[in-house]
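Researcher: Here's my situation. A collaborator sent me these components and asked whether they could plausibly form a single complex. I don't have experimental data yet, so a predicted model of the whole assembly would be a useful starting point for our discussion.
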Amino acid sequence: MNDHGIATADFRAIDDASGLRLAMSDFGNRGVLKTRRFGYDGKGQVVFSGTPHADAEQALTELGGRDCILESLVPFESEFSVIGARAADGTVRCYDPSENIHRDGILRTSTVPALLPEAAIDQATAVVETILSALDYIGVIGVEFFLCSNDKVLVNEIAPRVHNSGHWTEAACMTSQFEQHVRAVCGWPLASTSRHSNAEMHNLVGHDVDEAGQILAEPATVLHLYGKAETRAGRKMGHFTRLTPLSHRR
Amino acid sequence: MNDHGIATADFRAIDDASGLRLAMSDFGNRGVLKTRRFGYDGKGQVVFSGTPHADAEQALTELGGRDCILESLVPFESEFSVIGARAADGTVRCYDPSENIHRDGILRTSTVPALLPEAAIDQATAVVETILSALDYIGVIGVEFFLCSNDKVLVNEIAPRVHNSGHWTEAACMTSQFEQHVRAVCGWPLASTSRHSNAEMHNLVGHDVDEAGQILAEPATVLHLYGKAETRAGRKMGHFTRLTPLSHRR
C-alpha cells in the first residue's frame, strides 16, 4: 500500500547484486525481477522460483544491472485492466474493465464485460482516477490489475499510453482509446467511453496471423492487421475483436 | 419501369436542342436536366419550372450539349437511400435504408432508422439486389430512392461507389461501407451490415465546419473532418454522426 492508498505486490528496489541477494532472501528466492520502465510482452522481466542467487545475478546483469525491482509472486485469481483517460481540464473517463489472459508474458485475449465483483470494479476505477490525478496526467493510460482471493485488488503495472488490452474499444465503443488519447493531448473534451457491444479481443501472435482469412469470414468480427512485413514467433501481427450484442451474457 | 422492373421518374434522353424542346413540351416545360454521369452535390443538373425553351437550351449548352436526360419532376414525400455491396461470389448485403434530406442539391442529413413502410424497404432492397446482379457489379453502391404517394418507390440515382448517405455506417455499424467495399474488391467475404446504434449523420458544408469544437463536446457523436485546407461555400468539409441506442425510437 503506497502513500496514495494504492495496493501493489510487495517489492524491493534493486540497483545492484547485493540488493538483489537481500531481496531474494526476503522473498524466499521467488519473485519477478523487472526493469522499472519500458518492459512489454514479457521483455524486461524474469521470473524466479527457487532460483540460485548466481543465476538471479546473471539475470540482473542482462537487464542492465540497475533500475529494477524484485516483486513477490502474487497468487492471483484473474488479471484485468482499466483504460482511463484524463483531459487537460482534469476530467477523467474510464472504459469498462477487460479480463485479460496472458501466455508466455504476452497478452492473448481481453474480454468485456469482465467477470468481476462490482466492488473490485469500483475500487479499480477509483485507483485509476487517483493515479491520473496524482501524476497530473493528460492522455490515455492502461492500468493492469490482479484480482486476488477475498476480492482483493492489486495494481500490477501501468502503461502510460494506449494499451493492447484496450484495442477492443475501437470495435465495441463509440470512441476508441486512440481517439480519446488524441482528444486529451489536443486539449479537446473527452468523449463517451460507453460500449455498444460486448467484445472479445484476440491478439494474432506470430503465425496466428495465418488465420486472418478465416477470421475475415466471421461476419461480426473486426480484424486489424498491423501490416508488418515479416511474421516472427512472439511478434504481434494484428488482433481481432469478436462482437456480440450487449444483451448477451457471458 | 425498365426491363428489370425498376421504376424511375419518366425521362427522355437528350442529345441536342431539338430533343430538349420536344421533351420540354412533353413535360409542360418542367423537369430536371441532368448529365448522365459524374453529377454530384447538385452539379450537373438544372431544374426547370415553366422555363422558356431558350433558357433551357442555354442550360443544355452549359452541361455540354449532349449525354443528358430530362426527367419529369417527381412529387415525392421523402428521399431515402440504400447502400449495398456485392462480393466476387455474388453475395449481396444491404445496410438499413437512411432517410435523406438535401438542401441546395447537397445532402445535409441521413437518419437511420428511416421512417418508411416495411413494404417500401423490402422493395428498395430487392431493387438494389437486381441492379447489382444485372450489372455483375463488385463493390459498394449507393442507390437513391423517392418515396411517393401510395408508398410508391422510384429509383432516383445510383452512385457506383461508397456514398455520402452511407457515411453513418462508419459510426453505427460493425463494418463500415468503406471496409465493405475493400472486402468486395479484394475478393474477401462481406461482413455484417448490422447496426449497433441508431444514427443521424450531418454534413458539414462550408462554414458549418466552424462548429466542430461544439460537436466534439457531444459525448456520443463521432466527428470526421476531411482535412481540406480551405473552407468554401458549398464545399463538404466533414460530417458528424450522432449515435443513440437501438432501443430509442424516432
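Model: Some features of this prediction you could bring to your collaborator: The first strand of chain B starts at residue 11 and ends at 14. Chain B has a mean pLDDT of 95.
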